[in-house]
Design goal:
7 helices; 5 strands; three-stranded antiparallel beta sheet; 2 domains; mainly alpha
Length: 260
């Protein structure tokens, strides 16, 4: 029976090479990779494309950081308004809104820096997210106080109106006013005047401490849950501002001899 016979014995006299086959192509330009190649985020790349990807990475600068901070402050203000609006409308401190606040702050900073990120961007985003969420407690508390004050004034006005109606009814029946005991005069305690700056400073400090103050109120478990959710929102801002990451490794030899 005729035919080709394949000798399975290894041929040690012939050099064998392993590695990336020379027929593989760059995943960016499609050109064949010859002697060496790179890995750009685990994608096969030739030298020119690897250099181009390296040049495309956003460069950090003082101007980029300043723009990111300004955009981040704007995002934090929007997040504060969003958190406060939900709290005022619902009357509840819904902690899940802090997730949206972290997302808005992170995206705003990346928009301002044109994709530049890093540790200082992450720290700034975390601080802005915490500030926006905690300070949202100030307008919520002011609104609730105004509502309670209005209810109290209405109650006092109603009681005063009832007293006047009773007096008119008494005069109508007996032709004279009822005898009323004269209130004992008293002097009002002196009111200490507080400057506007001091008042605003106190509100800011109370707002910043509000996530921890809630732990010592009547519902400590709710305060603890709020802190946990806030930490997740900060984590979202932290990860968003990490920036664009492209890992470039190489060069690697396209064929490495195992034996000769």
């Amino acid at each position: 029976m005729s035919g080709d016979v394949i000798d399975p014995t290894p041929q040690f006299g012939t050099a064998e090479y392993v590695g990336v086959p020379s027929s593989d192509c760059c995943q960016f330009c499609g050109q064949s990779v010859a002697l060496s190649y790179y890995r750009v985020s685990n994608a096969l790349s030739c030298f020119p494309c690897a250099e181009q990807k390296k040049r495309e990475l956003p460069k950090d600068s003082h101007a980029a950081f300043v723009r990111a901070v300004l955009f981040g402050i704007g995002g934090a203000f929007i997040g504060l308004l969003l958190y406060a609006a939900v709290g005022i409308v619902t009357g509840l401190m819904i902690g899940y809104v802090s997730l949206a606040v972290g997302y808005v702050v992170g995206k705003a900073m990346m928009k301002g820096s044109d994709g530049v990120g890093g540790r200082r961007y992450q720290i700034t985003a975390a601080l802005l997210t915490y500030s926006a969420v905690s300070l949202a407690a100030v307008p919520i508390a002011i609104t609730q106080y105004a509502k309670q004050k209005k209810v109290h004034e209405q109650r006092v006005q109603t009681q005063h109106q009832q007293l006047q109606d009773e007096q008119r009814q008494f005069e109508k029946e007996f032709g004279q006013q009822p005898q009323q005991s004269q209130p004992t005069p008293f002097s009002k305690p002196p009111v200490k005047k507080i400057s506007l700056a001091a008042a605003l400073g106190s509100l800011v400090l109370l707002g910043l401490a509000s996530p921890f103050i809630n732990l010592f109120q009547s519902f400590p478990l709710q305060g603890l849950i709020g802190l946990v959710i806030l930490s997740v929102g900060i984590r979202i801002a932290w990860r968003t501002t990490a920036g664009k990451t492209i890992e470039i490794h190489g060069p690697y030899s396209n064929s490495v001899p195992l034996s000769t």
